[in-house]
Amino acid sequence: MQLAKRLENLGTETAFAVSEAAAAWKAQGHKIYPFHLGDINIPTPANIVAAQNQAIADGKTGYAPAAGIPPLRAAIAEVEGAHRGIHLTPENIAVQPGGKPVVTKLIQAVMEPGDEVLYPNPGYPIYESQIDYFRGVGLPYRFTETATGFQVDMDYLESLITPRTRILIYNNCQNPLGTESSAAEMEHIAELAIRHNLWVLSDEAYFDVRYSGATTSIARLPGMQERTVILYTFSKKYAMTGWRLGAAIGPKEVIQPIARLNTNDESCTTHFVQWAGVEALRGDQSAARANVEILRERRDVTVEILRQIDGIVVHKPESTFYLFPNVTGVMARLGYTTVAAFADAALKNTGVSFCTRMHFGRPIPGESGHYIRSAYSGIDTPEIREGLTHFRDWIDNTAKGGAA
Ligand code: PLP
Fold first, then answer.
1. Which of 107, 145, 227, 304 has the fewest CB atoms found within 10 Å of its own CB?
2. Which of 375, 345, 346, 348 is nearest to 359 (CA)?
3. How far apart (Å, rounded) are the C-alpha atoms in residues 46 and 276?
4. For residues 95 and 274, is the Cβ–Cβ distance under 8 A?
5. Contact of 80 with 208, CB cutoff 8 Å
6. pLDDT tier at 35, thresholds 50, 70, 90
7. Per-residue pLDDT tens for 211-233?
8. Rounded CA gap, 256 and 59, in Å?
9. 246: which strand partners?
10. Is 68 near ligand 1, meaning CB less than 6 Å away?
11. CB of 171 closer than 6 A to ligand 1?
């Protein structure tokens, strides 16, 4: 039997292969330290769980409106609009089963085949996959490493734009880099979007996962709200990754077709889960705040131990739960030429499992340096200490022994 040809253009999250490799190693009786997961091993706040159970008890188990139940659309508009300093009404909200569907639905709503889409690389791999699948032309833009983190290579980004460019995907509080824009960088990106009349997909999955300061939404800059669709999700802020609850937030002209895509795809986001979302937004926020403190401790320990390793450069971002250590020096010390071989050896020798740059989009020609991504959302602090101590000692002992 034949499969459709277009499937050849559909990418995936190759990071799942890392989970499989770690699981296979664990099945052989080895201990694993999972730094590869973008998932969260912290329970969903009890008030949110209780609200869902109540909604089921109240019979909120039938279909719901395609764009979402009115109380949730109103709560997102009110709470997240105020949080971002923008005016929103329920018509600006299309509830989704997670943040991820916003990528595919915005692309389907505004991109013609052959249109170009700028996207961050390294970046969330679903951007590239969905652009390719709907026969757009992906224009990956790149980052340069600074003394404290990463910044968008703005000259490079600008050089990519042509009259066919239609969408700019922007992920401030970035996965996998952990980086965020300076005010000047964000203003420059907004200026380009306005000058070239681009839609902006502002992926704000990590907007509230932050340890100091406040995140700015590009939608609040002058001239931006009318061209920006925000990818909003409950996944990270409220430790609700498996609940599948998020929203597209944007101008009503694009929210309406996105809601029509909802009707065609999933009909509606799970009815009782939406009621849990109302509680998440309007209820007690103390558990969500406490989760950030747990993540802060994990970040600090991870950075502390990685910085003890000669040949690793690691920045300390104020948002997300990702680090993107430069391991070029340590690979040279141990004699590895590919980051995949280094990751495999780290798993087999220490149980420490992580993704690499290769899991976050096709590398841009001319890239230099080797990077891994350490996620600390799925591993407790004592395990972080234990695993990274093994990792550090393995590197030091192997380097002393002269062979990997
Ligand atoms: N955007 C980014 C950058 C992400 O890292 C993720 C999840 O890992 C998502 C979007 C989608 O998250 P979800 O579909 O769970 O809301």
1. 304
2. 375
3. 10
4. yes
5. no
6. very high
7. 999 999 999 999 999 999 999 99
8. 28
9. 96, 233
10. no
11. yes
